[in-house]
Amino acid sequence: MSTIIEGRNAVLEALRSGAPxxxxxxAEGTKPNSAIEEIYxxxxxxxxxxxxxxxxxxxxxxxxxxxxxxxxETVPFVYTPLAEVIERSGANKRSLVIVLDHVTDPGNLGAVxxxxxxxxxxxxxxxxxxxAGVGPVAFKSSAGAVVHIxxxxxxxxxRALNVLKEEGYWVxxxxxxxxxxxxxxxxxxxxxxxxxxxGPGLSRLVRENCDFTVALPVAGQVDSLNVAQATSVxxxxxxxxxxxxx
Length: 246
Known about the structure:
Blueprint: E1 3-6, H1 8-17, E2 21-27, H2 34-45, E3 50-53, H3 55-61, E4 70-74, H4 82-89, E5 95-101, H5 106-119, E6 123-127, H6 136-141, E7 151-154, H7 157-166, E8 170-174, E9 180-181, E10 190-196, H8 204-208, E11 212-215, H9 227-245
Parallel strand pairs: 2-3, 5-6, 5-10, 6-7, 8-10, 8-11, 9-11
Antiparallel strand pairs: 1-4, 2-4
Helix pairs in contact: 1-2, 5-9
């Protein structure tokens, strides 16, 4: 099945990245501005068909009603094999892989992917079942970052963690009742950061296969951040350690 990407920023990022696009849909009556003009220019340069359609057609196809008058239809998203991620990371002393343990909200998935890409992570790993996949909502909430970082889809998270361990990664799981706080955890080098679903957190088998667990200190009345926010904080602690020790 095709993937629909909606919204001017997400469409622009997809076109700039060279994502395989079947066609561009523009709502009739959409007023030109710099973003729309660049979208047209990129589509023309890539020989992408442009169709003007009634706005109600985009409204019907939109998942969140935020298409801003433009959509593109792409070929289905292609996930990256874990073996390819490992090969790319090679013998690097520092590498970050973020694993999501059955996060079902595609908006959160996209936000995690965006943070992972900005932090310089080598991949985001998600389970095939009972998990959000890369689709229009994830693409939009990632601001197009899905085309810049490998996304791995696996049928067995525990097996994937053990494969990464064999390649020298140290696996840390985020948990409220963790062994150590963020500042004291071993958050440098070759790290796999495992984030659980909001509510249930890490599943039992996944937690049992973590080398350590890590928590964020809480100073306010709300007891936690959402998974995307927490991932950002933990990922950038890994970034900070590299700058400090480098």
